[in-house]
Amino acid sequence: MKLGIDLMGSDLGPSELLKAVVRFLNDYPVDIVVYGSDEPMIHHQRLTWVKTSQVMEMEDGPMAIRRKKDASMVVAVEDCIANKTDAVISAGSTGALLSAAVLLSKPLPSIERPALLANIPNAKQTVSVFCDMGANSSNTPDQLAQFAILGHIYAKSMNHINQPTVGLLNIGSEQKKGDELHQEAFKKIKALSQLNFVGNLEGRDLLSGNVDVIVTDGFSGNIALKTVEGTVSAFGQLIKEAIMSTFLTKIGGLLIKKSLSIKKDRYDYRKHGGAMLAGVHHPIIKAHGSSDQEAFYHAIRQAYQIVEAQVIEKMKREFE
Amino acid sequence: MKLGIDLMGSDLGPSELLKAVVRFLNDYPVDIVVYGSDEPMIHHQRLTWVKTSQVMEMEDGPMAIRRKKDASMVVAVEDCIANKTDAVISAGSTGALLSAAVLLSKPLPSIERPALLANIPNAKQTVSVFCDMGANSSNTPDQLAQFAILGHIYAKSMNHINQPTVGLLNIGSEQKKGDELHQEAFKKIKALSQLNFVGNLEGRDLLSGNVDVIVTDGFSGNIALKTVEGTVSAFGQLIKEAIMSTFLTKIGGLLIKKSLSIKKDRYDYRKHGGAMLAGVHHPIIKAHGSSDQEAFYHAIRQAYQIVEAQVIEKMKREFE
Question: Is there a contact between A228 and B206 (Cβ–Cβ < 8 Å)?
Fold first, then answer.
């Protein structure tokens, strides 16, 4: 297996990502091609470097794909399309990577809109597939039904769940709840006999781990995930303040520190890889823009497992 | 001032709500009329009881308003419309109370859809006005602009903020972000010169306290608030587990317990009243269905303050 890695455009820079690359090369029997402006300072038998002259910046719009033909991200995706690599991992601009996926790798037949699909950790210490995380700003009922199938395949082949339960993120549990989009999507998903559809979910079920696949339009998905983020940060702040308030609470904080950090580990997004651009012809993985070595390692591992489990082939079979 | 209180249909029953009524009567110089099936066991000079024979149940649809003419909720709203009381507070079915507001109190001229408006606590230890919390399952750009004005008036008169900042809940901060609804709403709100519009917000800003008024369609608002709820519950669980894991962590837990509970108090929804049905002709307050004495007391206080601050009159002036 050969994995292609875009080293440019992440917050912490190429050297941080390279640490993950080396660690991964030591752990897995793969070849890795890295794309970037400077020759890596690290040498490894199974590591090759493709020199690229341009960088996709965070603020680059979708059309930059056409303009910056020698950007590391573009060359990495093109090499994957030309079968020189089996998958691409990038921590660069989400918007640019999405357009590279759509314009270069192309959506599968009968997929209208690719989506960002990822495993999110939950209170049951498992993961739920979440799709769409926000690749789209609006969706149709048919697109939501496509997300349901993509999520179902991912949960089956990556999370090894035989009959994954699928739920639709909505504003109430009864079938008639929600706007027209979600009422129609409910019917369309229910009609897919291959799915184990359990009906509507609410925002409060997101982290419960009660379903294996959470289907959502990109708008609601974005709002929900960023709300989780904001809430976690507000409560982290609160706990910190509570611990720092007196001498005794500081002692208390020291006593629970390790235990708390072990428990919090369950929600560490870095351990769960990045997001897959689901619904295109090639495995393209978006790692978090602020990925450190740990997060990027798991994004590479996710790409490796996607290739191993033939996730793209299974999605192609479903949508051809 | 005379406040009307629907005693029926809450999770904890009339006796729990009555405790709040008595406490409020002792604290404030008001008259209170309670509506319910059984005569209150408590007597107070400024407390009167209106006997009603029906109860609005949680599962009652909007049309139950017409069918259950002697439900405590319906009679309470009708008495307010007939100027027998100055405001109504109910912890009964949200759907039924919404239809009572729309069908009986009626939307203000040029208000298309009333909304659920409430103060939500934030990390800055202040509150932000949130509108719509989920009265609507879909909205138009004009309706979002109306919510912005309603929220602005509420923040000014209830939270005493002179030039409240107003933000639109969206999926990115730039103006062009979001679906058509939110792009159009952005323009419409921006065009309202009386507002201090600061642009788009994201889910992660919800609890930051960076804006005074958060405008959202009812669908996204519902998803966001229930996601906060689910995240808080998942993290509460996590902290509990961390504290319970060993003897030493239990000691640590004891040491920070009080401090943590003081800090957590800042997010205690019970202290912040209920939701106002904004955009109708009368002050109608929805208290949480599971309100205990403390929560219901603050919902009554909110109604009292709404009447005192002439919030409805100010809204009428704006929309007539």
Answer: no
Q: A211 — phi, psi (to 5°)? A: -130, 155
Owner of token pair 């939110």? B182
pLDDT at A62: 77
* Strand stretches in chain B, DSSP E: 2-6, 31-36, 47-51, 87-90, 115-121, 127-131, 165-169, 196-201, 213-215, 275-278, 284-286
- Chain-chain contact of A242 with B255 (C-beta, under 8 angstroms): no
* Residues of chain A found within 8 Å of residue B211, distances taken between Cβ atoms: none
B80 and B164 co-located in one domain? no
Q: Inspect the interface and report whether the beta carbons of A248 and B266 lie closer than 8 Å.
A: no
Domain of residue B80 covers 1-110+279-320
Of the residues A223, A233, A268, the best mutation for testing chain B's interface (the one with the most B CB atoms within 10 Å of its CB) is: A223
CB A240 within 8 A of CB B260: no
**Amino acid letter for position A191:** A
Tell me the pairing of strands A2-6 and B87-90: unpaired
- A85 with A139, same domain: the answer is no
Q: What string of DSSP letters covers A45-102? A: TTEEEEE--B---TT--TTHHHH-TTBHHHHHHHHHHTTSSSEEEE-S-HHHHHHHII
Smallest Cα distance from B295 to chain A, Å: 21
Q: Give mean pLDDT, residues A218-229.
A: 96
Closest CA–CA distance from residue B202 to any residue of chain A (Å): 7
Say if residue B244 is in the same domain as residue B132: yes
Q: pTM for the complete prediction?
A: 0.94
B81 part of a folded domain: yes
Does A182 share its domain with A259? yes
**Which residue on chain A is closest to B122 by alpha carbon?**
A234
Residue A153 phi, psi dihedral angles, 5° rounding? -65, -40
Residue numbers of chain B with a pLDDT score lower than 70: none
Spatial separation of the C-alpha atoms in residues B151 and B189, rounded to whole Å = 12
CA distance B128 to B117: 10
Mutation site for B-interface testing, chosen from A176, A183, A204 by largest number of B Cβ within 10 Å: A204
Residue A206 CB contacts under 8 Å (≥ 6 apart), including other chains: A120, A122, A169, A214, A224, A228, B227, B230, B231
- Taking CA atoms, what residue in B is nearest to A216? B223
Query: Which is it for strands A31-36 and A47-51: parallel, antiparallel or unpaired?
Result: parallel
Q: How far is Cα B169 from Cα B133, in angstroms, rounded to an integer?
A: 12
Q: Is position B181 within any domain?
A: yes
> B237: nearest CA in chain A?
A123
Give me the number of domains chain B comprises: 2
| Nearest by Cα to B264 from A188, A235, A294 | A235
Question: Is residue B274 in some structural domain?
Answer: no
Nearest CA in chain B to A176: B137
- Biggest CA–CA distance in chain B, Å, is 65
Selecting from A205, A220, A260 the residue whose C-beta is nearest the C-beta of B230 gives A205
Nearest-angstrom CA–CA distance, B273 and B238: 28
A chain contacts of residue B219, beta-carbon cutoff 8 Å: 171, 178-179, 182, 220
**pLDDT tens-place string over residues B43-75:** 899 999 999 999 998 888 778 888 999 999 999
pLDDT of residue A134: 94
Reported as a single tens digit per residue, the pLDDT across A89-112 is: 999 999 999 999 999 999 999 999
Asked if residue A274 is part of any domain, the answer here is: no
Fill in the DSSP letter of residue A280. B
Q: Are residues B175 and B224 in the same domain?
A: yes
